[in-house]
Amino acid sequence: MVRLIRMARMRFRERASRGSSQWCGLLRRGLLLALGSGLLLSCAHSADELQKTEALEGARGPVLISQGLWVCRERGEVVVDARIAVREGWLEQLVCKAGTREHESLLAVAVEPSLIHAALLLVGARPGTPGSWREEQDAGGSWRISCVSPSGSPVEVLVRVGGPDGEREERLCEWVRGAREKDGTIIDERFPCDRFVFAGSHVRANPPSLGPGEHYVADYTGSIVGLVTFGDEMIAFREVIPDRIELAPATWAANTARMPPEGSAVQLVFRVAATQSQ
């Protein structure tokens, strides 16, 4: 953890030099939650504070850092309480914040996305940037879509489901099915399971409805694990999919047969590769 803080401080200084120090605040928020301490008031840490982070590093098993949110550093995992939002129809998100995009998401969670972001920092994940796209006209007057892929640490997204035979763990991608038209025929398509990255959303100036100050964009929009590219995702799908149906026809839908009933309680798991969480 001490190593993580030192690396983060170097990266925060680089970001601050470009006028963006918000990630320091997110890391501090995660540490405050995990340590239950009011001491971490800046990115400069005292010896006592570093000793407390070392104590966290030595913890065995999951550590509850906020209601419905656990960190397990030895396994590189962040675990979040969730519930089934929809189990039929086309998807634009895989996971959203409760009260936002449940109509197009498999899962909904009550935990603020910024807290999940902070927890991911605690297990060594490195945030990047959400993807983006735009229409461009070339010299010949033809229009094309220009895409920028999201970046960040690769993250495995799983779900734990309880049942009469005990708890089972599945990859969330198995709850998604594809249906794509090819040569006039609808064919099933397997959803790729290894294409999620810790994009980290953004910190932006508040809209008028939030008053003065800044906000973590995914807290406002609810985009926790994205599928379609809105550009606000905390966890992003590597493939850029424009959020306009005329440019990117719906392809991915809920795999109803694999899912528990709507409203069921499950646990969402974000797992970071061991080489990143050291």
Oligomer type: single chain
The H-and-E topology, N to C, reads as: HHHEEEEEHEEEEEEEEEHEEEEH
Number of helices: 6
Task: Bin the strand percentage.
Answer: 25-35%
Helix-strand category = alpha+beta
Q: Work out the radius of gyration.
A: 20 Å
Share of helix among residues?
10-25%
Termini, distance in Å?
A: 8 Å
How many E strands? 18
Biggest sheet descriptor:
9 strands, mixed
Task: Please provide a written account of the structure.
- The strands form five sheets. Strands 1, 2, 3, 4, 5, 8, 9, 15 and 18 form a nine-stranded mixed β-sheet that branches. A three-stranded antiparallel β-sheet has the order 11-10-17, with no helix packed on it. It has a two-stranded antiparallel sheet with strand order 6-7.
- 22% of the residues lie in helices and 31% in strands.
- Strand 10 and strand 11 (185-190) form a beta hairpin.
- The chain has helices at residues 2-17, 22-35, 47-57, 113-122, 217-221, 274-277, and strands at 63-66, 69-72, 77-84, 93-97, 107-109, 132-137, 143-148, 155-161, 168-171, 176-182, 185-190, 196-198, 203-205, 214-216, 223-226, 235-237, 252-254, 265-272.
- It has two domains: 1-58, no CATH class; 62-277, no CATH class.
- Residues 1-23 and 33-50 have low confidence and may be disordered.
Q: Brief overview, please?
A:
Helices cover 22% and strands 31% of the residues. The chain has helices at residues 2-17, 22-35, 47-57, 113-122, 217-221, 274-277, and strands at residues 63-66, 69-72, 77-84, 93-97, 107-109, 132-137, 143-148, 155-161, 168-171, 176-182, 185-190, 196-198, 203-205, 214-216, 223-226, 235-237, 252-254, 265-272.
